[in-house]
Amino acid sequence: MSRRSETAREDLSSLRRIVSGRSEYAIAAVGLAAGGAVGGTDYAAFGALFGFFLGKSLTSMLRTVSK
Q1: Which helix (H) or strand (E) holds 62?
Q2: Which of 20, 55, 58, 67 is 20 to 30 Å from 26 by CA-CA measure?
């Protein structure tokens, strides 16, 4: 296996660890994908920001309700 593919694989596995540990990052990734599918790079950035803050508010609301 080449060094380039090893580095890409390590980057992907570290991204998976970050996303799996934090649900708001997973929702931000979905927002990024949806924003990119809808309208290019400008909307992808907006979608990621919107998804991130939506994820943060949902997770904090669920933590508050579950207490």
Answers
A1: helix 23-66
A2: 67
Q: What is the pTM of this model?
A: 0.49
The domain of 35 spans 23-67
Collect all residues with Cβ–Cβ distance below 8 Å to 33 and sequence separation of at least 6.
Answer: 47
Q: Is residue 10 part of a domain?
A: no
C-alpha distances in angstroms, 43 versus 20, 34, 49, 52, 53?
Answer: 24, 9, 10, 14, 15
| Count of structural domains within the chain | 1
Summarised one tens digit per residue, pLDDT across range 11-20 is: 666 666 665 6
**Tens-digit pLDDT profile for residues 38-64:** 767 777 777 777 777 777 777 778 778
Phi and psi, residue 23, nearest 5°: -65, -30
